[in-house]
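Predict structure. Chain length: 92.
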Amino acid sequence: MVTRIKKFSIHQTGRVLFVFYGFFSIVLCPIFLIMLLVKPGDAFRLLAFLIAYPVLGFFGGIIGAAVYNLVSRFAGGFELTLETTQEQNIQP
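Prediction complete.
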């Protein structure tokens, strides 16, 4: 079965990318803490990055979804091939 993605919800796409980039910035915190031990003067830059990264991901998601929605009107959109299968309950 072929399915075509016609449109992305702009706000929801931005929210998902905000959470994704926010999680990724939290994962990067230990690396940034090590960097602060090496060069303590960069604390403001690192803090600004940890805050700006998810915010920019949100706005990037909004812009990307809006552009996709515009382009998909003319180009058709992404196509996915889906397959339906029956799940088997495998007991250990």
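Summary: Residues 43-75 form the longest helix (33 residues).
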